[in-house]
Amino acid sequence: MSDLREALLRDLPDIRLLTAPAELEHYGRDWTRRWNPAPLAIALPADTSEVQQLVRWAARHQVCVVPSGGRTGLSGGAVAAHGELVISLDRMRQVLAFDAAARLLTVQPGLPLQAVHEAAAGHGLIYPVDFAARGSCSIGGNIATNAGGIRVIRYGNTREWVAGLKVVTAKGELLDLNRGLVKNSSGYDLRHLMIGSEGTLGIVVEATLRLTDPPPPSQVMLLALPDMAALMQVFELFQHRLPLQAFEFFTDVALRHVLAHGASRALDGDYPYYAVCEFDAATEAAEEVALQAFEKAMEQGWLLDGVLAQSEAQAAALWRLREGITESLAPYQPYKNDVSVRISAVPAFLADMQDLLGREYPHIEVVWFGHIGDGNLHINVLRPADMAAEDFIGQCERVTKLLAATLQRHGGSISAEHGIGLVKRDYLGSTRSAAEIALMQGIRRAFDPDGLLNPGKLF
Ligand code: MLT
Ligand code: ZN
């Protein structure tokens, strides 16, 4: 390893490299905290040409490469635990261009999502993909996982908003994919292959993003519900009556953690389930429609209580109850499941899941939350203080196998928005058929015959 490190320092003297143990540890892991980081070195290229030089050097020396963004991933996609060269895009975080007529923003991959939002706002527009890690995650990582988040119900996933990509392949070639075109019916759309490929097909060095008009002013409601069946009824009613921007849920257990972590209580009583919903409400009439929907749900017994935010500060406080969950659970290093089913399959899937989890985790705390409006549930399992980490992971893996089988029966996915990475690699077959996986592996070989880009992830 030290010979290779010396060769790297000698061969690419102009590229910034980090090799101190603390730096290797910092850049070698993501939010999963499950694997011990052990990269060869961390490279911080300043531009596309340096990314190409690094990839070519890695190919010459048959060194594996881990592309790295904000490392907020939850599936181990950015982990470097086997002497890989980490190519961090941290220094490539500029806004490169804005095309007003086409409403396109071209950015470098290391730009944090929040900075993309700010750049769009500077032109009176929005980039609508959004989620709690906005300040730390990078747009390149969002593209690599086809990130979803809290506004998918209105705007879709990252994929919908990528109009062009420049990508460095494992051979060091630069591909310029789709170039911001709206219409381009000229064969396979390699841009879409790159989105969600988790760094296994190439390294995004430039992204051209679609922007759109900001939505009308909105209102935020917190709803308290008796059970998941009621949650689905309320979702259906609200979806029918209100222009929803978001419809998210969490349980009393999640609320307990987020309150203990500093969030403020919004309702006096304690209830089993909660939903945060945001909807366009530019006029008093729109607000009236929302209140009528609320009353109808109360009459039906689907709602137990609720509050409509009276100010922007209160709306932010209600959102914090949902968005603060991940951070409040982080000290427990939870085992995370991020699953989805078609929205119409949610009630039956939930019933099976509640049975399964109640049976398999009788004495273990399981925290549910997620993007119920997209059929996407986050099931976080917390390690009891008296259980060894290995035993805990073993038990979680065993239950994930059962969960994967349940998902398969309901036609769902083992990863809705976090990616497969290392964490869900063994369960890919529950979501994708053997024929699909063989084709995916063939695609990977076509782009990267030596298997040097993010090996071990996805397959
Ligand atoms: C969320 O919805 O908050 C994110 O996907 C993060 C998580 O699942 O912890
Ligand atoms: Zn999520």
UniProtKB/TrEMBL annotation:
Query: SUPFAM superfamilies per the record?
Result: FAD-binding/transporter-associated domain-like, FAD-linked oxidases, C-terminal domain
Kindly give the InterPro entries that the UniProt entry links to this protein. Answer: FAD-bd_oxidored_4_C, FAD-bd_PCMH, FAD-bd_PCMH-like_sf, FAD-bd_PCMH_sub2, FAD-linked_Oxase-like_C, FAD-oxidored/transferase_4, Oxid_FAD_bind_N, Vanillyl_alc_oxidase_C-sub2
Cofactors needed by this protein, per the record, are: FAD
FAD-binding PCMH-type domain span:
35-214
Question: Which keywords does this Swiss-Prot/TrEMBL entry list?
Answer: FAD, Flavoprotein, Oxidoreductase
Protein name as annotated: FAD/FMN-dependent dehydrogenase
For molecular function, the Gene Ontology terms on record are: FAD binding; oxidoreductase activity
Give a yes or no for keyword Oxidoreductase in this entry: yes
At the top level of its lineage, which domain of life is listed?
Bacteria
| A single GO BP | respiratory electron transport chain
Q: Which parts of the chain are coiled coil?
A: none
Asked if the keyword Amino-acid biosynthesis belongs to this entry, the reply reads no
Q: Name one Pfam family in it.
A: FAD-oxidase_C
